[in-house]
Automatic annotation (TrEMBL):
The chain crosses the membrane at residues 21-44, 310-332, 365-388, 400-420. It comes from Dyella halodurans. It is a multi-pass membrane protein. It comes from the Bacteria. This is ABC transporter permease.
Length: 437
């Protein structure tokens, strides 16, 4: 019976090609607009590390006081002094610090020009904390952190560029006139948003290429390639040492806490540390600390671009308008067939039969609209860079899940839109139609 209803629907659609084309176009354009914006929103708003987002935390300490805070919030990074104090205390299961670096790489082939490689100075715990995958080798450990070794973990793309993709563990590369020994090659890994470096605005930046020990970077006076916020007074210190041990915030801290009791204990530790600094005369205000997990951190810093939310809302509104137009077109189409409906009812067809026939016809319109929507979605994703920044636009892509969702939304929306016209058509009285015709 379902195939029979589809056949009747196909005949009806061919009978009014212009009206059918209008309905298909209305559904296609509405679905395409919503799917393109949804593809962008999905790319920028997902949980970048769902398996551990509730266990990874950003600890923040207020080193400025209520006079210089924004809305009572502490700075979004730590001073070197506070960051090292947290590391020495070692109150977390794992902990790391990081700051961005940019170094000039000298290729082994003298005929090639040097180039910049960006990445992070961090601790060895960075890699197991964030579950970074390795293609060759392994991350360094606490021994290398403490000994300040000149070692580096490089990305797969940099390994391809320097060593043609071969296992480069143990080989050496030159960066900023310093020799580094490669201890590991990371596989492709670039969580979006890059939750661990929101302070520097790198949530949608190009993938990092190098990772060097934080302790070695400090020892070699490698400057930060990220933000350096010295507060309202703008004091940076007269030299590097005074800046390093001053009140400028530039270090991003992360800790891993695997239970609620450990989270509570770490909060108490932060308050205790702030009280110690108060007693020492460094702070003259009550502890004002924060400990946010990944999702809370993303929400607090508004990592999802507001234009993606606005665009998605507008696109869904446009889809709703298209569905309203489709309801009107279906109502006009179905009610013009009142004589046909009257004859069918007189021959024994029930209202349920009318529902099945017309909803099957609407489903065919939705499927055709979905196919058109897929073509328009592909075109829209290709041109999404005209609306969004390139680093965000390149994240949107048409995959199998989006293809399935596009077709599902198109069919489901059209069938839902057809319920009212179908209900009106099913109310046709056979006797009136037979008498008048």
């Amino acid at each position: 019976m379902f195939m029979h209803n589809l056949g009747l629907g196909a005949i009806s659609l061919r009978r009014n090609p212009l009206l059918t084309a209008l309905m298909i176009m209305s559904i296609g354009f509405g679905v395409a607009a919503s799917m393109v914006t949804f593809a962008v929103f999905r790319a920028v708003s997902g949980d970048p590390i769902p398996q551990k987002s509730s266990q990874l935390f950003v600890p923040l300490i207020d080193n400025r006081g209520p006079q210089f805070n924004r809305h009572g919030e502490p700075p979004s990074a730590l001073t070197y002094t506070d960051a090292m104090a947290l590391m020495r205390a070692h109150r977390a299961d794992r902990q790391t610090l990081l700051y961005p670096v940019s170094l000039s790489v000298m290729p082994g082939d003298s005929s090639k020009m040097p180039f910049k490689a960006t990445g992070y100075a961090t601790y060895g715990d960075f890699f197991p904390m964030f579950e970074a995958p390795f293609l060759y080798g392994n991350p360094w450990g606490s021994v290398e952190d403490e000994s300040r070794e000149a070692i580096v973990v490089i990305s797969r793309s940099l390994n391809q560029k320097l060593f043609a993709g071969q296992n480069s563990v143990g080989r050496r590369i030159t960066m900023d006139d310093r020799q580094y020994r490669v201890v590991g090659v990371m596989d492709n890994w670039d969580p979006k948003p890059r939750f661990y470096d929101l302070f520097d605005g790198n949530e949608f930046a190009d993938p990092a290429q190098i990772y060097i020990p934080f302790t070695y970077a400090i020892d070699q006076k490698i400057e930060t390639y990220g933000n350096n916020n010295c507060g309202s007074d703008g004091k940076r210190g007269d030299d590097r040492d005074s800046w390093l041990h001053g009140e400028c915030v530039w270090v991003s801290p992360w800790v891993e806490l695997n239970s609620a009791s450990k989270v509570a204990a770490y909060r108490q530790f932060l308050d205790s540390y702030a009280n110690d600094q108060r007693r020492a005369g460094r702070f003259n205000w009550a502890p004002n600390n924060r400990l946010r997990n990944v999702r809370e951190w993303l929400d607090f810093l508004h990592a999802v671009p507001p234009e993606s939310r606005i665009s998605l809302s507008l696109a869904l509104g446009f889809l709703l308008i298209c569905l309203v137009n489709t309801i009107g077109l279906l109502l006009a189409k179905f009610m013009r067939r009142a004589p046909e409906i009257g004859v069918r009812r007189a021959l024994g067809a029930s209202r349920a039969d009318i529902y099945r026939q017309f909803l099957a016809e609407a489903g065919m319109v939705g499927l055709a609209g979905g196919v058109l929507g897929l073509l328009l979605t592909g075109l829209g994703i290709w041109g999404v860079g005209l609306v969004f920044e390139p680093q965000i636009a390149r994240l949107a892509h048409l995959d199998l899940s989006l293809v399935a969702l596009t077709l599902l939304v198109a069919i489901a929306a059209t069938v839902l839109a057809a319920f009212y016209p179908t209900w009106r058509a099913a109310q046709v009285q056979p006797a009136w139609q037979l008498k008048s015709n």
